[in-house]
Design goal:
single chain, globular, 9 helices
Length: 168
Amino acid sequence: MANIQQTLVVLKPDTIGRSIIGEIIGRFERAGLHIVAMKMTKPDAQFLRDHYEGIGKLGTRKGETILNNVVDMMMAMPVVAMVIEGVEAVEYVRKMVGTTEPKSAAPGTIRGDYAHISYGYVDNVDDADFYNIIHASADAEEAAQEVKHWFAETEIHNHTPIHCVFTR
């Protein structure tokens, strides 16, 4: 049987603020992936630290200043969190999202089409936030941890959509 996976996707405050939620969700649906959980939420600093450092080790990898900046940016507005399911969904979603630095993301990816900020700009401009539209789990292990962090089991609705290209 095919490798059906679930992955976490979070539409960040810049997506909400620009009112492009539907455009991004539509990309995943048109690709044959489907949403099994979704909510708009405004996580607090501890929840975000548990996500970005506790699971993703952002502060360990990039430093406490970057971790604090990301947490502050993520609290600026609500976010939309989703669990997306499909064949090899983790890798496929990452491919659709594009590289973390939007300036380097290929045209046709979500970041390549909707963002353009660079690490250099953020490093050299006071009060510049690193807006990159979207978070997607990096690998299957991280996806499993992130899905559990953001969603209770009762919030995930396993179903087979009409006209689905894969089966459970």
